[in-house]
Design a protein that fits this description.
Belongs to the binding-protein-dependent transport system permease family. CysTW subfamily. The chain is mainly alpha-helical. The protein has ten helices and no strands.
Length: about 220
Amino acid sequence: MDFVHLVEMLPDMWNAFVETLLMISISTAVAIIVGFPLGVILFATDRGLFWENQLVQSGLGFIVNIVRSIPFIILLVALYPFTKALVGTTTGPIAASVSLSVAAIPFFARIVESSMREVDKGLIEAAIASGATPWMIIKDVLFLEARASMVQGLTLTIISLIAYSAMAGVIGGGGVGDLAIRYGHYRYDHTIMIATVVILIILVQVFQFIGDLTAKATDKRK
């Protein structure tokens, strides 16, 4: 392995690392801001719950399932016009963040919905019987009871986004994936390829570790 060459590439690798973190940060923030309330709506509008509305539940569920079923590389290309209109370009980490966000929103929304389904319905019924408003039920019952599960789901979402961000490098999305394609694959530089894989593995391990610690700290059962 050419360590001298690897040292020379350190500035480019650092820039790629920062771009990857930027993409993950933006898309994770959007997933939480949009995906969390979407997941709550998917749960609360189901049959027998306080916002029961089968039309809304079925419609949103259908849209979420469609987006989740599209392979990410196809979603990247399909969103070119939207990305261009929104950020003015289709390349770079900011542009890639648009597609990453669109992929992350339904993914996290389903996780939120699934986490809330694990909450004992007796707690919800007791809250309703005591006169709690829907907002109070969401805040004081659903969120508190399901938060550990949602943290684990958010960790899974972030790890998936790390993989997606590397895939975005194939079409000039920037980040570690772009570095691996341009310098590793096109130039047959195995040193760079190995280095980028190591970076991605470290990223996954760090986020998994933080996610596990946070989930344990927020788990009411412990």
